[in-house]
Each structure stands twice: as C-alpha cells, then as structure tokens.
C-alpha cells in the first residue's frame, strides 16, 4: 500500500470520456450543431483534440454516443420494458406522453435535433442509429404489442413493425417538422385513433 | 416598333430567378447542404451574390423556394387534388406509392433531405414550410378523407388531422431515418393497417 497510488489509467480515461460527452451535449445546446466543433468540445472538456479523435471518427459519432449516455442516464442505464398493466391504450399513452415531455425539454430537444440532422445526411450514422437505438427500442415496443395480441387485444395478423410506425411515428414527425403543437392530448389522440382504427366496425 | 427593343427587366429577372433556383437544386445534389454556398450558387447561375441576397435571406429560404419550384413542375404548377375513385384504399395506395417513388429518386432525395434538415433547426423556416407546403397538401389529403367519411367509409368521429398523420407520416419517417426499406409494399401495408385499424372488429 503505497501512500501515493498511481492514478488508475482506465478510470482516468473514463473520466475524460464522460467529460467529453457532457461537454458535447452542453455545447450543442448552446451553439447548435452547425457551430459545434471538436476544438470547442476539447476546450470545454479540458482534453486535447487528439484524445477526441482517437475515440470518435466525427462529431456526429461523438454526439451519438453523448446522446446514448443521456438516454441511458434517464432510465438508470437499463433499456426498460414498456409498462404492461393489461390496458394497452393506457400503457401506450403513458409512454407517448413521456416522450412528448422529453421532446419538449430543452435539455433533450437540441441534441436530438442535431442527431436527427446527422442521421438524415449520413447513411453510416443512420445504420448505427438503427442498430444501436431504433432496433432495441422497437423490440421493446413490439414485445408490448405481442403481449396485447396474445391477449386478443390486437388483430392476429397485424404487422407489428407497421403498428409501431403508426403508434410512435406521428409524435416524432410533429416534433421534427413543427407542424403542430406537441401535447399530451395529441399523444392520446394518436393512440386512440391508431388502436380504434380508421374504419367503422363491421356490422 | 424599334429594331432593338430594350430587354424586358421583369422577364430578365425571372430568367435570373429560375437560373438561381435550378443552380441551387443541382448544387445541393452534388455537394450536399453543408457545403452549399451562396457564392457557389451565384457562380453556377451566372449572377452576382448580391442578386441572391436581394431576393433570399438565407440559403435555407432559397432552397425552400427551389424545392417548391421542383414540386410545382412535377404537377404542372397545380396543387392537384387526391384521386377519388370511391375506393379509398386504392386511392391512398396510389398516392403513397408515388411518394415512395419520388423519395427514392436521387433528384428529389438530396434537396428534400437538405430542406428537412433546415426545418428541424430553423423555426422560422419550419413555420414557412408548414404554411406554404404542409398545410395546402394536408388540406387536399383531408378533403379526400372527408369525402370517404361522407360515404360512410370512415368512422364519423375520426380526427382527420390525426388520420393524415397516421397515413402519411410513416413513409416520411422511414425515408428520413432510413430505418427500413422504402418500398411500394410498405406503402400498401401502412394504408391497409391504418385503414383496418389495429383492433379486431367488434363482435
């Protein structure tokens, strides 16, 4: 037991990594994505530019990791299953209302817009996003819908991927395009309309 | 009747305007939005930078006008009503399949991605987009759904705005996020699922 232990290199680099991710999120919120630079992030995080370039190939990739960290912290790093109380509409409304609240929170809004911009233009990042974020989330949503289908609450031949798109897409669209107010009421309407379907019941 | 008529200034400036819009669309397809510059567009169109700045406040606003022109040329400058053969599903599939084809066309893909990026980050442009493009298109879609509702093909209390979001949002999302293949079959599935609704018929 030496009095003066050498700093643990893996802990030190984890500290630097977290400082960089936090700086990236803070900065993108302040200056926007277009003006976000690796230099600026390095300065804010107190590391050299080369440290960042060693770990991330682009500011898009760095921001994506920062965003995954932010999303992970929100739910204690667990990818949580959707609630399943047996009431499908209520469970979906709970989830979509939480999404609306998150999208209306400035802490999420700016980095998520920046991330979506990169996804639109960068096919490699889009593939990474699809694999690391969209697919795991989509699987949790489908799991909840599968359970509803098993309980006879969804038609047996519903395509679960299309169902996920119908239930979760409209809120994302309205947020991205700003085509209308993003409210809890809108989330409820989407759930009710998607679940009830647009056609009147068969006689 | 002089032999050498003075050039008509309004025609000359219309020629310049169209040259600028065409140059903007060509250039954004070549270099992408981030590298698109007013200087580059001016050079390609054979006009001075000041001519462009006199007419448009930003490259986003210019690209938006260029995109409106492109969209307008596709349908002879008319905002066409949706087809109404009486078969709602068939009519919607026709429209959504055409949208899929357009989004898969490189001539539209790059400028539309650039436009959507700007909309995501620029609230003023988003408001302009909502007013000049989304709302008129949405009105045409609602008109078709209203006719179906009057014919008893949709439930009387369906919210038409939410119905439009469910029917037309998923294709746009899949294109923007590249979360899956954008095919005619997907368009058909979205229409069938949205129209049939997710719940089994009441007994």
- What is the subunit arrangement here? homodimer
Largest β sheet strand count, sense and barrel closure of chain A: none
| Tally of separate helices of chain A | 9
Low-confidence stretches of chain A at least 5 residues in length (pLDDT < 50)?
A: 74-78
CATH class identity of the largest domain in chain A? Mainly Alpha
Corresponding CATH superfamily of the largest domain in chain A: Tetracycline Repressor, domain 2
Task: Please state roughly what percent of the residues of chain A sit in beta strands, choosing from under 5%, 5-15%, 15-25%, 25-35%, 35-45% or over 45%.
Answer: under 5%
H and E order of chain A: HHHHHHHHH
Mean pLDDT of chain A comes to 83
Largest interface: A-B, 51 and 51 residues
Q: Which radius of gyration of chain A do the C-alpha atoms yield?
A: 21 Å
User: What's the N-to-C terminus distance of chain A?
Assistant: 82 Å
- Outline type of chain A: elongated
Q: What is the CATH topology classification name of the largest domain in chain A?
A: Tetracycline Repressor, domain 2
State the helical fraction of chain A.
over 70%
